[in-house]
Inverse folding.
């Protein structure tokens, strides 16, 4: 039987998940709903009982051409005539299982590291169950939570060896993240063949409907997916296209939803107004679904965050992800304290960010040790701290993080680096006086959000447009005779943002000639 791994159901008969329901009835409903492969996983039942259940399940699955696999128990698989087994790292070895079950049996193996995956693939596993993706109550003693980045690393390792092994990922997969997991791992050199799920189907009130819903979700890209592969940009293209995007923002007046810190509320709202967006400063997660329906973008800024605020951020993130509205993460000071490091991990696990914008210290924290080899990621306060990376290292890190997250990443600094994983640019605009005014980093996040709202088809170009408008306005303001320091700079800066917006509306594009953008070949 040829296996389709796309929606892989793993059973669980515990009270916490199955409840008082009959497992066979639940699996029948799930198969009718569209699961494509089933694994019977039961760590406690006696052998005879397990064989009886396996036979009952097999009569259902085989009627739908759905393979049935048995967790760990080669004997039960043989007795029930199941199509194969799924084995853990501490169970029977692949060669022995193959010898007993024969060449046509499906043999899958649990793997949580690149080494385990390569060993299992070379030993002849038909597929790998890669996990644990997200924390789950379902399996005790899961070794490590590896996130989508861990899954992607394993897929990339597998892509580098010549084995035709299939892959599914497992752990905490549910309707709210299934599409994102597939999307964020799709930039690896090997793609997932499916998602493996326990509680989101077995524990669902209506397992048939839950399976059908998941099947529908995984057969489409998520609402926030980039619509097409953007073209490579030349500096000339950029300068030609930026003014029209500034003009379109003024015409569209997109909603710019800020969940930002206590320090910058007023300044961020004024910057949004000056560029032509419509700001709303709402930290209430309960109203995010209504706001997400208004076709704008959301900035999540964790500058003065707490557990309560984070819960609101996660609600809003989910609402915008469902609506396909762009979300910008400004992970202010995310490497400074343990609470912030945990906070940013929870946000990254909780949803998709179209753009991540941070200083060198923040971007290093998010990238983590796998991408920032041998570098200290402890931050002092919300400042970036001393730079330890060369320009090329910054550009390479930004590109690698964007490829890993399948989004756009900006590292700010005297030179800004911006990448979508395929295209990377350096921007050398801005002015040192921005560093003397609080919130100028945060309000750049607000600006980028507004631009991504109106130019979703190319989020990198949208972010770049926001950066150029913002930084050229800062240069113009700083050079004015009436600006004598940070106090007089702020109103002049708002005026220059407003002026550029007016120039773009009139088609007066000379302002963009000040852009210092370099498209990098890495
Ligand atoms: N294996 P749920 S996690 C059976 O990491 C299993 O190998 C895992 O359950 C692994 O879909 C897991 O309810 C349980 O989160 C997954």
């Amino acid at each position: 039987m040829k296996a389709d791994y796309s929606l892989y159901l793993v059973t669980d008969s515990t009270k916490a998940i199955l409840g008082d329901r009959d497992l066979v009835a639940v699996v029948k409903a799930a198969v009718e709903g569209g699961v494509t492969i089933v694994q019977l996983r039961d760590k406690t039942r006696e052998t005879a009982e397990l064989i009886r259940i396996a036979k009952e399940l097999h009569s259902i699955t085989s009627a739908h051409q759905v393979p049935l696999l048995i967790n760990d128990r080669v004997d039960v698989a043989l007795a029930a005539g199941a199509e194969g087994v799924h084995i853990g790292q501490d169970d029977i070895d692949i060669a022995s299982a193959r010898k007993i079950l024969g060449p046509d049996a499906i043999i899958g193996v649990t793997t949580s590291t690149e080494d385990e995956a390569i060993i299992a693939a070379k030993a002849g596993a038909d597929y790998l169950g890669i996990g644990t993706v997200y924390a789950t109550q379902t399996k005790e003693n899961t070794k490590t939570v590896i996130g989508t980045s861990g899954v992607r690393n394993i897929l990339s390792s597998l892509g580098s060896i010549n084995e035709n092994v299939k892959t599914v990922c497992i752990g905490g997969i549910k309707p709210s993240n299934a599409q994102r997991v597939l999307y964020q791992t799709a930039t690896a050199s090997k793609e997932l063949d499916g998602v493996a799920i326990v509680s989101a189907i077995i524990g669902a009130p209506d397992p048939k409907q839950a399976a059908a819903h998941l099947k529908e979700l995984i057969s489409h890209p998520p609402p926030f997916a980039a619509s097409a592969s953007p073209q490579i940009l030349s500096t000339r293209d950029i300068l030609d296209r930026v003014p029209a995007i500034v003009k379109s923002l003024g015409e569209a007046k997109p909603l710019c939803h800020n969940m930002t810190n206590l320090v910058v509320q007023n300044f961020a709202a004024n910057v949004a107004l000056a560029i032509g967006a419509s700001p709303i400063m709402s930290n209430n997660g309960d109203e995010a679904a209504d706001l997400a329906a208004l076709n704008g973008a959301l900035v999540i800024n964790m500058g003065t965050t707490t557990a309560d605020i984070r819960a609101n951020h996660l609600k809003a993130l989910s609402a915008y992800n469902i609506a396909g509205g762009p979300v910008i993460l400004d992970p202010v000071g995310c490497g400074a304290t343990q609470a912030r490091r945990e906070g940013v991990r929870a946000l990254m696990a909780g949803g998709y960010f179209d753009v991540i914008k941070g200083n060198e210290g923040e971007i290093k924290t998010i990238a983590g040790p796998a991408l920032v080899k041998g570098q200290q990621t402890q931050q002092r306060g919300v400042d970036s701290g001393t730079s330890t990376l060369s320009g090329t290292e910054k550009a390479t890190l930004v590109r690698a993080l964007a490829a890993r997250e399948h989004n756009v990443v900006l590292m700010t600094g005297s030179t800004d680096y911006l990448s979508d994983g395929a295209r990377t640019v350096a921007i050398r605009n801005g002015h040192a006086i921005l560093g003397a005014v609080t919130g100028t980093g945060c309000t750049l996040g607000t600006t980028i959000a507004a631009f991504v709202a109106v130019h979703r088809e190319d989020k990198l170009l949208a972010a770049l447009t926001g950066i150029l408008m913002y930084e050229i306005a800062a240069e113009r303001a700083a050079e004015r005779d009436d600006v004598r320091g940070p106090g007089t700079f702020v109103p002049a800066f708002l005026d220059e943002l407003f002026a550029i917006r007016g120039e773009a509306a009139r088609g007066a594009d000379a302002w963009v000639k000040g852009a210092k953008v370099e498209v990098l070949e890495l």
Notes: The two ends are 45 Å apart (CA to CA). The pocket of 3NM is lined by residues 10, 41, 110, 129, 131-132, 136, 138-139, 142, 170-173, 197-200 (CB under 6 Å). The chain has two domains: 7-218, 235-520.
